[in-house]
Design goal:
Elements (H helix, E strand, L loop, with lengths): L2 E11 L11 E2 L3 E5 L1 H9 L3 E5 L2 E9 L4 E2 L8 E8 L3 H5 L4 E2 L5 E3 L1 H6 L3 E6 L6 E6 L2 E7 L7 E4 L3 E2 L9 E3 L7 E5 L4 E4 L9 E9 L6 E8 L7 E7 L3 E3 L1 E6 L6 E5 L9 E4 L6 H9 L5 E7 L7 E3 L8 E5 L2 E4 L12 E6 L2
Parallel strand pairs: 1-20, 10-19, 22-29
Antiparallel strand pairs: 1-2, 1-5, 3-7, 4-5, 5-6, 7-19, 8-9, 10-11, 12-18, 13-17, 14-18, 15-18, 16-17, 21-26, 22-25, 23-27, 24-25, 27-28
């Protein structure tokens, strides 16, 4: 039987990009795993999920006469995958932070660890673009009236998220105005008015909850099948955490026009500004004590004088950043933020 690729999902990370701060590179720090429902759907249509470092793909048997999937998925079939963390250190240098329009934090590492929110990737109408939003898991409990009354108490099956309130619950199957009157977060109990309903009447309550998923799951991916837009090649692009980056330069030589330049050919070059001698800077004070005969102690910060620029964490030193004095390269391939570096670097240049 002949197989063909239905779609591929590539995992890319800014941390591994080689060409400039926004460049992406393949990342094996994360992996994709199909949900149980996805595995069942693929099996029903004789399809297979193949996992590789930094990517995965679905292959399908072909009808060789028509060069089309032999057991095609129904239009708008949703295939769910989970983004799993393989290397814990990658969680620290990946930027998951998101705010809403009111500058409220809606996603960060803490929320992911607690199971309260996840990055959510799904394909849009254009075909191969993956849109990123925030995913919340909703628990739906099937309940039954046992003691009809204005304040009947019910226990919740799921684990509500920490910031849930009584008004966040949705009740269906009672009257149109039925709501949760009270909510006990610690006891996982809610009070609902069931007066006027018979014992045994069933209804449903929905609420944001912590999903019953393994802890290594840090994201959700949904691929919706549209035969007119497949085969497809999708990409999940993860950004690096950023930091306002400082270089402290110390040397036994005196320089006329010391600078740090970005020699990359990208449109968004990094700018480093030489700052005035800082006051109340413990690292600067330590350098003056450590090197009392130094002819040069200088401080460069990413960004302009008034506007700091936050540089992305990267795996390797940048081949594009150079320490220069009057056109002479004193040090090439300067280190930049990484999991092995702090946010302040001391660059020594001694003759």
């Amino acid at each position: 039987m002949t197989y063909a690729t239905l779609f591929t999902i590539n995992l890319m990370h800014e941390f591994y990009g080689k060409n400039g701060p926004l460049d992406m590179g393949p990342s094996a720090d994360f992996a994709l795993a199909p949900s149980s429902a996805c595995i069942k759907l693929l099996a029903q249509h004789k399809m297979r999920w193949l996992a590789y470092p930094s990517r995965g793909k679905v292959i399908t048997p072909l009808d060789e006469d028509e060069d089309l999937p032999k057991f095609a998925l129904p239009v708008d079939t949703r295939l769910r995958f989970f983004l799993e963390l393989k290397k814990p250190e990658a969680f620290g240098f990946t930027d998951f932070y998101r705010e809403d329009t009111s500058q409220n934090v809606i996603l960060d590492q803490d929320k992911i660890l607690k199971g309260e929110a996840y990055p959510y990737f799904f394909n849009d109408q254009s075909g191969e673009n993956l849109v990123e939003e925030v995913f919340h898991y909703f628990q739906a409990d099937e309940l039954e009236v046992r003691h009809p009354g204005e304040d009947e108490v019910f226990s919740l099956a799921g684990i509500p998220v920490s910031n849930l309130t009584a008004s966040d619950f949705s009740v269906e199957g009672l009257n149109n105005e039925s709501t949760v009157k009270h909510f006990d977060k610690t006891g996982k109990k809610v009070w609902i008015d069931t007066k006027g309903f018979e014992k045994g009447h069933s209804f449903q309550i929905a609420y944001r909850a912590v999903p019953p998923w393994p802890k290594q799951i840090v994201g959700v991916v949904d691929i919706v099948y549209d035969p007119g837009k497949f085969p497809a090649n999708f990409e999940i692009s993860l950004k690096s955490r950023r930091a306002s980056w400082k270089y402290y330069i110390v040397s036994d030589s005196s320089f006329n026009n010391l600078s740090i330049i970005d020699t990359s050919t990208t449109n968004q070059k990094m700018i480093f500004t030489k700052m005035k001698e800082p006051s109340n800077d413990p690292l600067w004070d330590w350098l003056e004590r450590k090197f009392p005969d130094a002819q040069t102690i200088a401080l460069f910060r990413s960004g302009s004088t008034d506007t700091p620029f936050e540089a992305p964490f990267k795996e390797n030193a940048s081949k594009d950043l150079q320490l220069v004095d009057d056109g002479k390269v004193l040090r090439s391939h300067l280190p930049i933020p990484s999991r092995a570096q702090s946010e302040n670097l001391i660059i020594s240049y001694f003759s």
